[in-house]
Design goal:
The protein is mainly alpha-helical. About 75% of the residues lie in helices and about 5% in strands. Among the domains are: about 1-130, Winged helix-like DNA-binding domain superfamily/Winged helix DNA-binding domain (Arc Repressor Mutant, subunit A), CATH 1.10.10; about 350-405, no CATH class; about 405-485, no CATH class; about 520-650, Serine Threonine Protein Phosphatase 5, Tetratricopeptide repeat (Alpha Horseshoe).
Amino acid sequence: MLKISLFGPPQVLLDSHLLTGLTRSRQLIALLAYLVLHPGPHLRERLAGLFWPDIADRRAQSNLNNLIWRLRSALERAAECVASDAVSAWFVAEDVFVDVYAFQALITSDDVHNLAEGAALVQGDLLDGQDSEWCLTLRARFQQDYAQLLLKLLRQQQASGQWAEASQLAQRLIDLEPFDDEAHVLRVEIECQRGRWSEAKRCFHDYEKLWRDELKLTPSMRMQAVLAAYHLFHTPQVVATLVVQLGDPVLELLANAQQARAKYDYDLALNYLVKAGGMLEALPTSRLMPAHLNVLRECDEIYDLLAERRLQAENLDVLARLSDRFADSGAKYDYWSRRTWLYIASDDYSNAVAASESGLVIGSQDDNEQARALLQRLKGIALLQSGCFLDGYQVFASARVCAPDWPLHQLACHINLARTALALGLIKRAECHLEEARRVNDADAPASLSIRLAGCEGIWNLSTGRLTTALQKLDSAMRRAQQVADRNYAWWLANYSARAHVFSGAATRGFRLAAFHYDLAVEAQSFTDQAELAATAAYCLLAEHNAPDAAKWAEIAVRVTDDNTIWHYRVLALMRLAQVQLHRDESAHALESIQAAETLFDSQPMSWEFGLELYQTLERVYIHVGDLNAAQCARQKAFQVDAEICRLDEVT
């Protein structure tokens, strides 16, 4: 009997004998796993494109034929489980045990023994050691299924009084998803039920530190309810007051909201939170105001995740009124930080800057240096996104000195300074900031900052011609961004990774990468990312001399940027369109496009790196139409931009 284990390092056994020739080959395992995990026939053409995206179709088909033959040979007597014909290939699951199939059958069960058997099947990450995009997507999905199985098993063991086993499962859930509030709450609750008060307090302190340092949040309402119920940190009088004031219905709604959010059911979580907020608003006591503020903040975070900008704005209006009544500067800081971020997410950068400045006015009245530092950083991001790179650089530099003893803030500032310097073309300055970022970075830094640091290092290597290192760092950072669902940063990195592929001679791969992430940006209605990814796709196709398709993508980028709130992306789109039109000998259209880009560029503060490419393109267009005087002027402007970049990069 053939046994295929895909959880952890893949293993294939035939009658208890390990097929080492198969398991030692990443390509053989990848093809077998893909067929196993995607039941049904697969077109040979599609498989060839998936496994060899960077080579000609005919050669890719030949490689696939060879790989299928090798796979069947490595399977020995079980070769018939991989079937194929002239058109397709597929997996035949007869007389084969696959741990993933068994796991999928067991997770739907409510029987505790079946659930325990399902949990025992998971010996590690799905296809540990494989890093293809399709593999990462499936790995994330199975990780969620595994977490749900552990949670279901934990609740059954908790209900039957199997405290030790339930506690171990809660810790496994925390190890799997460190920011799962429900797992932390259950761990504390189980230790209380076991009477292990010191362990319960230790677990809570670990949770509180993680929430404070990494998420900048206070303990959730459900965690507070557990603390109150077991008198961990409050006197009986305070506990009684809390329970009477909040009441069981509100606590239940908040607990349900936490559970729904842990399962990524954001619509259901919002339903519970809105009901809880309404009940808290109706209770006539100022002591409940912090709880109501926390409910509104949770709603804001979910609206932001769902990109529900209108509802997010309405929720923030309520938060503003409550913050004014609360008369606490910290609540007002929090409101203006959230309002600034909403404007940034809505591409409304002028209002984002104004909102951050309103918060900073409040900051001038007290000594909350961390709140001021955060608002300064948000202001810098708004300026950076709007194309005001010099102003953004200066704001990030000011933000850095606001909270000198806050390591995470220092790390974030140096990363933002490096990113802005790279946009300006200031390579030496970017290198200095990256060195400082590495110096203050440590193992406790959030994943988001580590990803940003790796991404900026990749871009710096790309700017200095170190293509191999650039591709490694960019691809690694992009995969990690996808793993933690940081889509916006993954899209930003995809642009640079695609360009790096072009420079390394793999323009087809670069185009596929840009087009793939463009589709995701369209789904999320992220217009700035759509514009930049479409322009990058055109750039990749132009490198392949595929002018007709490059023109389509450049026109998409121009169409997306009709709104001048993202004017600097429009400059990029018009410049790409002009380059395509020049390649197609459409001189008049190319001149019209590049002059429109120049007019918009000259009316705004802009990245000199962009300016250099813009004037070089302008020179080429003028030469093509025979206007040599205008071409000479464009060349002089390019020289001036290059000289200014060099001058500023030498300034310490």
